[in-house]
Amino acid sequence: MLKLLASLLIVGSLTWIGHEYARNLANRPRILRSLKSALQILEAEIVYSQSTVQEALFAVSKQIPQPISSLFYDLASDIAQEKEQLYPVWELHINRFHQKQPLQAEDKEILQQFGRTLGQHDITQQQKYIRLGITHLERSLLEAEERNQQFGNMSRSVGFLIGMFIVLLLL
Fold this sequence. Notes:
This protein has helices at residues 2-47, 53-63, 68-82, 86-100, 105-117, 123-170. By secondary structure, it is mostly helical. It has one domain.
């Protein structure tokens, strides 16, 4: 009876790990698409509405779904309180966001590079940097979608199969 319970626990936990990995693989493209949309809205707010960075960040937070919405809202709120350089606030929030979301280190680096230029240039230069950030996110998005297609379903199965293999070895 104890062996059966331990076997079920091993198979169940490794299957769960496989499903969690697959869920993270599936969530990364969704997050990257939302970030790309957020940068497009940010571009429109800065270039066409000629809003300040803080106003543009608040506008993005109202138009994008969670969790991106809270990222931009928190950024805008902290910028209002900080009254100093934008990048330290940006970096802090991107680091927190990266810890909570299934993003890769290269995704974090794209966002941090973008944050270094945000609010530092005139409108036309800012538009170029936003477009560059969008381009980098598109490249990362394609890689994330390919990775999800390659490894998404496989990771679910591999978790279960490794669990079964360990159980068979223990018996």
